[in-house]
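so my prof wants the structure for this chain in the tokens format not the other one, which i didnt know existed until like an hour ago. anyway here's the sequence
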Amino acid sequence: MFRSGVGFFALFGLGWWLLATSAFDGPVRFVAIVVGCVVALGLMLAARRFLPPSAGGPFPADRRRRFAQINAAQWLLIVVIAMVCNRAGVPVIIPPLIAMVVGVHFLPLAAVFEQSRLRVPAALLIVAGVAGLAVWLTSGPDETVRLVVGLISALCLWGMALWTVTGAALTAGRDVSA
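here's what i got, hopefully its the right format
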């Protein structure tokens, strides 16, 4: 499930969803959090049901190394962004900038995993970041920045998880009927 990416998409999608829910208070936020948890859990259970345990297979050493390098660079940039934005007094732009970094990190991953479809979340996460920055630049409230970035990012990642599971389910359906 995690090799296929579904687990990562589901859990990181939940993280972005939780960011989006921070725009709300009280029962609305509670219900939104519960909905997000149910969606993430549902995606992981669907992956467990429809994906073979070895989905994605073992990675060769060179791919593992490149994956680690890309992710290390991504996390380093995220830490730098958080520190610089906090020191500059603009923590509200941390989520949009992180969404853009995460989006960009999918571009080399598309090559590493030979999965051109990873360009889709790359583009959508960059759009999420740009949309959040646009809200901020037009003096939109901080809550709206978080809502826009979190919602687009969560739906993007959950959409990728669903795409992966659906593709596996359709393939399994074809194999059964063949």
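also thought this was worth mentioning. The mean pLDDT is 91.
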